[in-house]
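Page 37, continued from 36.
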């Protein structure tokens, strides 16, 4: 008899008088019960493991869903910000064009290669995080802002240069008065000989303030033969101005001068027949008619 053919007899006897029961159990059945118990145990363990695994997956899914919703909200905010940025860049671009038109500065020929930048499509899925379309749009805005920044800097530099140039032009009348002798050939007021008069004679009361018509630096302040007390101011771009026959000077050599600063007072020092200011403008060391800069007389 083999091991599997063996069997066990289980006798069940009651405490009180009654029928005694006997059960014969073979080893095959015992092995079968043990095998079923093992299978059930494994299935139970697998079920428990699967349950907790699914619970963990659900928790991960909820976390992913929360992050997805957060990214979705961030993406919507990003789109709103980029729309605002696009609007502001367009406004700045319009302002630079207006400045170009008002100042007469030609717009720069170097422009952003992206051209105009459009908005987002209404059909774009809002759940997508920074998509290729969004990134392309953002890159376009960055490139556009760089082009506008260069244009603004260029306009600023040109405007500063123009402002510096204009501030160096002697466009303000140095003294209030009337023109008693103009630029050009005339009879000398003392000897009557015809000679070149290289400036304007502006008659004004003795002691009238003489102001600088433009920014510059004092090149000379002192007495010159025939001119009496003289102040010479060097401006930029090869422009210089001379103020002669002064009764007194209020500046010194090397002093920085701003437009409308007082540089002296009307007098009649040197070769003069009465109180007046002799005013000259030189460009590249050549005398030019001051009326080219001054326009109409300040007083007559």
């Amino acid at each position: 008899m083999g091991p599997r053919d063996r069997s066990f007899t289980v006798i069940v006897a009651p405490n009180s008088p009654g029928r005694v029961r006997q059960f014969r159990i073979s080893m095959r059945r015992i092995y079968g019960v043990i095998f079923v118990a093992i299978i059930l145990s494994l299935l139970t363990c697998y079920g428990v493991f699967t349950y907790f695994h699914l619970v963990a997956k659900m928790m991960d899914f909820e976390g992913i869903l929360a992050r997805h919703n957060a990214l979705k909200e961030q993406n919507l905010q990003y789109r709103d910000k980029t729309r605002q940025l696009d609007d502001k860049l367009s406004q700045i671009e319009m302002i630079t064009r207006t400045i170009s038109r008002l100042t007469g500065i030609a717009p720069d020929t170097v422009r952003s290669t992206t051209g105009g930048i459009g908005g987002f499509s209404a059909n774009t899925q809002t759940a997508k995080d920074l998509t290729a379309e969004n990134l392309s749009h953002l890159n376009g805005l960055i490139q556009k802002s760089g082009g506008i920044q260069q244009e603004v800097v260029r306009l600023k530099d040109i405007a500063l240069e123009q402002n510096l140039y204009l501030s160096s032009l002697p466009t303000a009348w140095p003294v209030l008065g009337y023109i008693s002798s103009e630029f050009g050939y005339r009879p000398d007021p003392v000897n009557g000989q015809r000679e070149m008069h290289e400036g304007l004679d502006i008659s004004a009361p003795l002691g009238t303030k003489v102001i600088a018509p433009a920014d510059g630096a004092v090149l000379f302040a002192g007495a010159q033969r025939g001119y009496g007390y003289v102040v010479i101011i060097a401006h930029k771009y090869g422009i210089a101005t001379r103020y002669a026959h002064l009764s007194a000077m209020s500046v010194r050599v090397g002093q920085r001068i701003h437009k409308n600063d007082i540089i002296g007072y009307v007098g009649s020092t040197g070769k003069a027949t009465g109180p007046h200011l002799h005013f000259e403008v030189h460009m590249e060391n050549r005398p030019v008619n001051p009326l080219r800069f001054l326009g109409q007389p300040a007083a007559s």
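Residues 178-294 form a domain with the Glucose Permease (Domain IIA) fold (CATH 2.70.70.10). Flag for discussion at group meeting. The first strand starts at residue 7 and ends at 12.
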